[in-house]
Structure formats: C-alpha cells, structure tokens
Task: structure prediction
Amino acid sequence: MSDSIEKVKCLIIGSGPAGYTAAIYAARANMFPVLYQGTQPGGQLTTTNEVENWPGNPEGITGPEMMINIMEQAKRFGTDVRDGWATKVDFSGTVHKVWINDTKEIHADTVIISTGASAKYLGLPSEQHYLQMGGGVSACAVCDGFFYRNQEVVIVGAGDSACEEAHYLSKLCTKVTMLVRSDKFRASKIMEERVRKTANIEILMHHDTEEVVGDGQVVTAVKAKNRTTGAIIEIPATGFFVAIGHKPNTDIFAEYLTLDETGYIVNVPGTSKTNVEGVFVGGDAADHVYRQAITAAGTGCMAALDAERYLATRE
Result:
C-alpha cells in the first residue's frame, strides 16, 4: 500500500547520460521533471576511469566527474533529482503510475525511461577485482580500446558484438586473442569471416577463461582452459574485454511495453516513443547497437522533446 501519491508532469526513471540530458531539456521546457537515479546513480559511466570520447573535454574526464557535471547541470535548471528506484509500474490507463521503493506512488503525465543496460560478466573473482580497480577489465572496446594501443589483449565472446569488438581492437592492438567457449561462433558468417581473416586476431575455440592474472593493480595475463584436453595456458595481456552481451534493465516494464527478444524496449523508429502514449525511452534501455554516452545523451534529448510535444497536444 502506498504511503503517498504524488502527481508530476514528467517523471524520469534512471540517470546516466540519457536521464540527465532528458532532465536538462525537460527542465528548460518548464516540465518540472522529477528524476529518480536508480540503483546505480550516474549509470555505467560511474565505473569508467577515463572518458576521452565525450565532446568538449579535450584532455579527457573521469566517468564519475562527467556524470556529476551533467547532474549538476540538470539541477541548475530545476530538476528534482532524488535517490530511489522504480520497483513497479502500471501503464494500463491514461495515468502513468510508478512505485518508488515499493512505497511511494507517483502519477505522471509523461514518463521517460532511462534505466540503461548492464554488461554481463563472467563472474570470476579476479575479473571483478580488476574491473573495480579499473586495471584492465572492460565490457566496451569502443570506450576503452584506445588505452591498449600497441598492446596485447584478450576478448571473450562468440557473437556478432564480440567479433565486431575484436576487429575494432585489432586496429589498435598488436595482438588480440579471442576466447570462444564452444566449437563454433554464434556470430553471423560474415562477422566470423572478418575476424578469421584478420592477421593479428588469434582465435582459441573450446576455451574457458579460468583467471584474470595481474599484480593486484593491473592485468598482466589471462589463464584459459582447453575444454577438450583440460590444458591451461597463460596468455600475456594488459587488457581483458568481456563481450558476452548486455541485459537491459527493463523487467518491470515487460507487462506494458513492447520489448524485443533480448529485453530491449522497442521504440517507434526515429523517435523515443514506446507503444504506450506518454511513455518514452532513451539510452541503453532501447539501444543495443551503439551503447555510447553520446548516443544515450542524444536519445535522452529526443525523449524530452517528444514528451514536451505530447504534453502540448493534451493542453
């Protein structure tokens, strides 16, 4: 049972570049947005040490600093930024109902979803250690590949994204070792052929990642186990990239919004609109292709503009 009901013009669920950018535009349009930051305030970028591909920061910026800056910009224009996360929604009627932390009920004229997606990891203790240290584990080659220029890296995965990221890394790194668990790729034939024809990509089929090796601060090698023979090899590497997929944080919307087979929210092409009027989406909750901070910010802007136009048609 809700202990209170609050009515708002624009509710933004989730932070990160999409949520905060939507908030900036919504606030400037006098939509008085209320933004709940979610379980990871600032989104995935808060786990990134250096961001060098965000326009306007020629010397680079840390992920946490960047997200604080965008949040403060949103606050400057009047966004009500709050702690908490959405635990339940009801989009069945003309009033969009959202519950925060299972207690507070909000009735919103418009809802902008920017809950993002979470990268899947192997779950190895050593992997998580170096991920948290920022010492050589990444789930985004486009984001972090530059830092491994002229070095040797390992990537694990077998799908199109893994092949695409391996090929991207091959242009920067002296050697890329690709670990594939089974005896075949899950990627399309054209993507598989692309990595097989790339001279500095070595593909090890039927190999599991056993351990990410390092000095406690940075990665120095990766141990892999041959699933057929049981033999363990140690591959010298300064970077370990995980490309086994992402899980969009959209479970609570499944009853009302159209999702694709992976769980990404399906938007009307060229817009941020969902199948429910007045509900919009920005960022990685809908984007399984680009997954960059700049594209997330762009779709956050689109969501705010679409929400503003929707409200105008109701006045």
Observations:
- The mean pLDDT is 94.
- The longest strand covers residues 4-13.
- Residues 293-314 form the longest helix (22 residues).
- Residues 51 and 90 are 37 Å apart (CA to CA).
